[in-house]
Amino acid sequence: MSDQRPFTIVPGAAGSPVLLHVPHGSRAIPRQVREGITLDDAALERELDHITDSHTAELSAAATALAPSAPWRFVNNLSRLVVDPERFPDEREEMLAVGMGAVYTRTTHRAPLRSQETARAALLETYFHPYAAAMTAAVESRLAAAGRAVIIDVHSYPTLPLPYELHGAGPRPPVCLGTDPFHTPPELVAAAEAAFGSRVGHDGLGHDTPFAGTYVPLRHYGTDRRVTALMIEIRRDTYMSEPGGPAGPGLTALAGALAELVAAVDAG
């Protein structure tokens, strides 16, 4: 368990509009948060294997090293079992139906994780709201520097659906592009299709399946078209051993694709 900083902002090129967001790549849980989780240590490790987007921080770092102009990176250093920074913190969140709102009360297999009310307010106050404020400030910084902000949300998902998934019955392509009708312009989708299609084949791309949408801070959500966003969901068997195993050679090719996307966005 960890008491490390909740998140890290890694500066990129001064004029870059790109913000790579890595929200679900960590397994770290502060000791005081661990005390509120009902799973024993072995069960918690198994849950972390399933719920963590393993190696996405490394993938984003590798892409940054390859990109002609370095993007900025916002990396969550804590597990999404602490809080999930990409959920709505209120009744708008559809994942509340399976106990996986901003503060999870159920596991990927719908078993109890923590009691319904245990420390929810404290977790939101301590972790969720500061994260949201810092992400908002990072977007504002890109707007001030570049006149636009482009959030590329870096995720992964398991080859086989897990019981918590609300939309797990659809296709599970090697790369899923998650979009938002307001914040994802066609040219951003086209750039991602070109970058990732050259690695996985254009028939290996999907749109909003099995996961849809993308992350935009609530201050900008649905109102500020200067903020654009795209979610990259990578099927885990393309780059790692599941669940929770080491990365494989596929990580290098995917980092190259992400770097190509960053370069195309910078050029646009």
Model description:
This protein has 268 residues and is α/β, with parallel strands linked by helices. Strands 1-3-2-4-7-5-6 form a 7-stranded mixed β-sheet. Helix 3 packs across helix 6 and helix 5 (186-200) packs antiparallel against helix 6. The termini are far apart. The longest helix is centred in the middle third of the chain and has 27 residues, at 120-146. The protein has 6 helices and 7 strands; from the N terminus they run ββαααβαββαββα.
Kindly report the average pLDDT value.
95
Question: How are strands sequenced across the largest beta sheet?
Answer: 1-3-2-4-7-5-6
Q: Strand portion, in percent?
A: 5-15%
Element string (H = helix, E = strand): EEHHHEHEEHEEH
General shape? globular
Count of individual beta strands = 7
Query: Cα distance, first to last residue?
Result: 42 Å
Largest sheet: 7 strands, mixed
Structural class: alpha/beta
The radius of gyration is 17 Å
Seen as an oligomer or otherwise, the chain set is single chain
Unreliable spans are: none
